[in-house]
Amino acid sequence: MASPALSDGSYEPEVDPEGSSFSDDVLGSASEIKPKQKRVAAGKKPTAAKAPALPKLLKAFDNEQLIQLILKMVAEKPELQARVLENLPKPDLAKKLKRLDQLERNIWRAMPNTRFGSGRDAFCYRRCSVHVGALKKAILEEGKNLVTSAAWPTVLEYVLSAAQNAASAPTWDDSSKNNQKSLTFKALDGYMKQAATKGKAVLDQEACTEAIEKLKGYGEHFNGSIEALAKLA
C-alpha cells in the first residue's frame, strides 16, 4: 500500500514495524558497500615486486664504490677476507689494452697529411701532442694501479703490451719532443723491475725468459728489467 500524499504533493517515507524508514535502509546499505578486492587463488600468497638481480645492481656502481663495499663487509666480518682473497680472479687486461690501442690510433688519426717535410716536424707534433700526452698518461696510470695491487704476473703481461703501444707512437724530428716516449719507457721499466724483485715467488720462469727476449727489442730502454728478470729465468 502506498504512503498517503501530503499537502505539498510529496509522500511520507514508508516505515517498517521496527520504526526504520525505507530511505534509511537504502542509505544504510549504500554506506556498507566496500571496494572489490583482488582475489587470490587458494594456496597462493600475494607476490611482492621483485628486486633487480644483484649482478644488474652492481653494474650501476663504479670500481671505487665496489671496493669500499667489499672493505666495509670485510671490516664487519674479518673472516670474509680469506674467502675474498681465495676467490679473486686474475685481473682482466682486455679493456685496459683496448683503451691503449685506441689512444695510439688517435695519434695517427690526428697526423696531418703532408707532401712536404718528414711528417714528424714541429707542425705535425702540435697536431698530435694532446693525444701523445693522453697515451702516456693512460699507460702510467694503469701500470701504477697494477703495481699497487701486487698482481705481478699481470704487471709483466701489461708492460710487454704497453711497451708496444709506446714504441709504435711517432718518433719526432726534434728529440726534445720525444720526452713523453722516453718517460713512458722509463716508467714501464720501473714497473717490470718491481715485478721481478717483489714477485719472485709467483712469476713463472718460462714467462720471464720470454719477457727478456721481447724486451731486448726495445734497445736500452729495458736494461734494468732484463737484468732483474735474468735472475729468475
UniProtKB/TrEMBL annotation:
<comment type="similarity">
    <text>Belongs to the cut8/STS1 family.</text>
</comment>
<keyword id="KW-0539">Nucleus</keyword>
<dbReference type="InterPro" id="IPR013868">
    <property type="entry name" value="Cut8/Sts1_fam"/>
</dbReference>
<dbReference type="GO" id="GO:0031144">
    <property type="term" value="P:proteasome localization"/>
</dbReference>
<protein>
    <submittedName>
        <fullName>Uncharacterized protein</fullName>
    </submittedName>
</protein>
<dbReference type="InterPro" id="IPR038422">
    <property type="entry name" value="Cut8/Sts1_sf"/>
</dbReference>
<dbReference type="GO" id="GO:0071630">
    <property type="term" value="P:nuclear protein quality control by the ubiquitin-proteasome system"/>
</dbReference>
<dbReference type="GO" id="GO:0005634">
    <property type="term" value="C:nucleus"/>
</dbReference>
<dbReference type="GO" id="GO:0070628">
    <property type="term" value="F:proteasome binding"/>
</dbReference>
<dbReference type="Pfam" id="PF08559">
    <property type="entry name" value="Cut8"/>
</dbReference>
<feature type="region of interest" description="Disordered">
    <location>
        <begin position="1"/>
        <end position="47"/>
    </location>
</feature>
